[in-house]
Structures are given as structure tokens and as C-alpha cells.
Amino acid sequence: MFKKPLGQLKTSAPIRASDRRKLKQRVLSAFSASLEHGDLLVPDGILTAKFFTHTKQPGTLYIDPGNGDPLWFTIGKSSEDLIPTVYTLWKLRDSNLLPSVLTPSAVIPILVGGADLMIPGVITHTPSTLSRDQLVAIHQLASTKNDDGTVTRLVSPPLAVGRMAISGEDLKTKSEADEKGKAVLVLHTWKDHLWDMGQKGDTPNDTPLVTGGQVAEGGGAVSEGAGPQGGENDDPTKSQAHGEPVEERVETPGSTAKVVYTPQEITDLLTKSLIHAIATQLSTLPKDSYPIPSTQLYQSYILPSRPAFPSSVVLPSSAPPDSENIHIDPSEIAVKASTYKTLSTFLKAAEKSSLITLKTVKQKSGGSDYVVTGVNCEHPDVNAYVIGQGGKPYVTVAEIEAKKAKRLAREGKEGKERERSEREVEIRQCWKPWLGSLGLFEDMGASTSNMYTLNDIRGLLTKYITSRQLINQHDQAYINLDGPLIGCITAKRAGEPGKKAEKKPGEDKSSLPEFMKRDELMRSIVEHMQAWHEVKAEGKDVVTTKGEIEPIQVKVTVGARRGRTEITGFEPFLIIDGEEMADRMRKICAGSTSRTNHQRLKVTVQGKQGQAVGEYLMERGIPKKWIMISEVVGKK
């Protein structure tokens, strides 16, 4: 999630004392932390800032006022789900704020690179009963050989935070079956851009793996070659001998007997499915939708209305006493397995019960078939269904399939967005101390030759304000200005014409500002620095250039008979070649293009092609915020 720099980070500000108390209570309650750790997890003066990730997801960040470390964050608009950073987990490493998931050392760099933790990469986890979407901390498990020939297994501090993609039970089942898939959806890692906002530094020391049941038995075996560094104890199945005993599976006569429905029970379920279809769909169809062919009624209405979890609707008579969690595949609920055996017989019985009305029609082949000419919405069973059950007594197969299709579509879209974001050009805007800002950075203890991002400058300013106690006591949104701050914001800016006007004696102190809002102060400091930008594209050397980078300009001329689209300013982004773009746009837009090179490169496309050009640029890896599409009125 933080593989790339934040799309936007707003100015941080201290939260009110009442809000801090509420935040502390949320943390203590959500993570079962002891009261004595409250001030450590939510320190006095904690700062908060709104942000957007590089994929435009909104969030809130809570920052340590002393050292600038990010402590907590939320993802999503108005989300209340607090997520600790690795800095927070390192503070209370022995308190187990989050359940632990152990993975081989070779996997950690892959997670830092932005990947999720896959099932084969899980060595073990504790506790064994993890639920889906539960927050977990990911640790590295490595081995070291001692002088006496023994092997010690070492557990790192938390290096990543994520949510379980599946439950611990499913993880164990899928691992035993050698299935692949995601185990943990990684949200934040050591060395990502969220971690970079803090003071960084070395990670805490590794600790020996505690055995004897304190690390629960694994959620899955490690595939060959994916485990920790070699050693006789690297097999997670062997490590279980030092922890909880593995339950021995004993097969007993009848324990493997398959639970099935009787033909009568299937008939009952099909009838319930028909009633469900009448109450929720068929009763609302317009009259011209009838007649409905019998096969269409069965395939499009009855089968999708089957219960997705049949045993919760009709418990099989063959189920053993006190049985729980019996799952029967809904596909077993079919007319051929019922007492009627054929669809026509089933429909005739439904007509006899006054649920539907049928009509016999002759087919071209010479036979006959039924069509449904109407349904009885006033049937007692339909009324009982709607009134007595609120219209929704069970989850249907159609609902499960619709959710699955929606999830697959969402995952496909997210996958494409992720692939696009991985190819995106990284634009890093930075600033260097210059002229009037040099003295301030010297007083901050920062190098005057380095270049800093906005986050870096904001962190240095926060530390400076905290160390010198410059927060205004009457209004914490304001900062009291000391000598170095005043010297910076009142200095002449680079390239500013003219000389400073001479001030009359006695006017200096009265005309100088005494305090300023934090965001205004930040903006003024940046304005007194020298702008630079860094462009990093896949397969290209990083290019650092003085000055601010401008968005690519896509100017669409409208009003003309055919219109035209002009693209300029793409050279600094490294990955766009003018001739290649002209050729590609000619094919996409099925129109003529031209390329000119006067003062700067310009590609012109025939027609009003702003949207097509924008999509092409984003597909090539240009972030959307660096594409400026505008319309101008041309001569007719």
C-alpha cells in the first residue's frame, strides 16, 4: 500500500486532549493493551494528518510528536479501524499487540517490494485460530548454526502488518492440500514509504524462537526451497514436536459416510426454490414476459433460487445426531434426484398445488412441452414466505454467485490498477536549502546540501517546533516564530526583483509576525528553498533536474469543424517518445497525426481525442495527476 510515496499528505496538527483520550481508549480496547502502556501508544501531543495513497485511497495518520514516527493509520473515508505501524509494534514487542505470522527470510524482500504473503510462504502462526480480515504482524524466521553444531531459530521483530486473506483453519487446509493463494494482504512494511516518514534506524534484535507451545502449530507447510536457511530444524512439521501435539486423525466406521438428501427432501427444497422465485422475481415480471418456457423457468429462476447452504434450510435425515457444519453442494438439488425425476412432472405437481399455471404447446419436432403462463402471487405458501420470513429466509445460489462475480471483477480491476501503478513513473519533488532558508536548516541540525521532500521538511519542522516549544499556548494551530523562522520567511526569495525597501527605525519588530499557522509556515519555508525534481522510470536511470516539473499538456481544440488535440511537455517523463506516440495515436484514433520540433516536441492528433490520449499516457505509466487535459475554442 505504501510501496510508492503518498499521493498527498496534509499538514499535521496536534489533536485535542479530549480526542486523545478517546483515541487512547480505542487503542486499549481494540488491541487489549494494558492501561500502563496507554501513554506510550498514544503519547501526549500526538499529531494527526489526513493523506491519500498513490492509488487515491484516503486515510488518517497519527504521528509521534517527539520523533516524527508514524504510529497508527486508518485506510478509507471515516474509517475507525486503527492499524499500528512497525514503529508501534517495536515499542511493545513483548506485549503481542497483534497475532504473529512467521515467514522465511527470503520472503521479506518480496513483501517490502509490494507483494502480499502467499500460502506457501507461511511457516507458522499464533494463535492457530485466526479469522479472516484479522490484523496480524509478519515476522521473519531464520536459523543460525551455533559453535557446538546445534541450530538456533531466530524470530525477527515485526517487519510487516497485514490482514488475513483467509482464516487460520482455511490456511491449514489449503496448505495441507498444497493449494496456492494469498494468506495475508500486506498493508505496511518495514522500509516502505510510510516507514521512511519516521526516524528509520536499525530494527530491534532478533529473539530465539520460544518452543513448548508458545508458538502454535503451523497454518501450513513450507514448500521445498522456500523455507529458512538450511538446518535440521527448518521443517515446520518437526518444530511441532516442540509445541502443541499434532492431533492424530482416527477413521471410524461411518465417520466418512457421506450425508445426502433423500428424494423427498430434494423435492421439498425444489418447491421452496420455486416459491422463492415466485415471491422475489416472477411476481414482479411484466405481463408481456409470459409465457415462459419450462426449461427457462427451471434454469433461470428455480435453480438460482436454491439455498446456497441447504442444510440450514432442510437438515438431511441421514445427518448424525448433534451434527454441525454439514455442507451439501447445492448442485445436488436437481429435479432428476427428486421424487418427480422429470421437470414436466415437477411442474404439473406445482400446477396442481396452484402455484403456477401451465399450457401445453406443440414443438416443431412433433412433441409437446409446457410453458408457464402465470404464477399465483396470492398462494398461501407465497404469502407465508413473504410475511412470515420477511421475504428472505435464506441466502440463494444466485446471491453467492453474484458476490463471487463482483469480487472477481473487483479483483480484476484492482489487479489492472496494481499493474499500472507498478509501471508508473515515480515523480519525486524535492527542495534544497537556498539563500534565506540556509540558516534555518543549520539550526535544525540538517544538511544544507541535501534535497528534501515535503514529508522530510515537515518532519524536520515538527521536531524543531517540539524541541523549542514553539506551539502557541492559546491556539495550538499557530506556531510562535523565533529568530531563525522569521529570518527564513522574511528573506528575499531567489529571483525576486528589486531590493528590500528600507525600514524606518523602530518599525522592524512591530512589522515582523509573531506567530503563524503551521501550514502557512510550511508553505513559506518551501517557497524560500530551491525546487528540484527526480524522475524514475522502469528501465531508465534516475534523472534529477533543477526546477519544478510541469504536467503533460493535452490541449483539445473545439469549435473547429474537425478539431485537433496537441500533446506537449512529455519529454521530462522519460518513457514517452514523440514519434512512437504519434504512430500509436494514429492507430488508436484512426486519424492522421504529426510531430513537430520547434522549441519543444509537440504531437498533434486529428480530432477531439483528449480521453484517448489520457488513457494512452496512463497505460504507458504516466500518473493521472501529471496529465492536464484542457479545451480551447478554435476558429470555425
Written overview of the protein:
The protein is 29% helix and 22% strand. With 636 residues, it is an alpha+beta fold. The strands form six sheets. Strands 7, 8, 9, 10, 11, 12, 13 and 14 form an eight-stranded mixed β-sheet that branches. Strands 1, 2, 3, 4, 5 and 6 form a six-stranded antiparallel β-sheet that branches. Strands 25-26-24-23-27 form a five-stranded mixed β-sheet, with helices on one face. It has four domains: 1-239, Sulfate adenylyltransferase (Roll); 263-317 and 328-399, Arc Repressor Mutant, subunit A; 428-492 and 511-533, SWIB/MDM2 domain (MDM2); 551-633, 2-Layer Sandwich (Translation Initiation Factor Eif1), CATH 3.30.780.10. It is built from 19 helices and 27 strands. InterPro entries: EIF2D (IPR039757), eIF2D_N (IPR048247), Pre-PUA (IPR041366), PUA-like_sf (IPR015947), PUA_eIF2d-like (IPR048248), SUI1 (IPR001950), SUI1_dom_sf (IPR036877), SWIB_eIF2D (IPR058886). GO terms for molecular function: translation initiation factor activity. Residues 554-621 form the SUI1 domain.
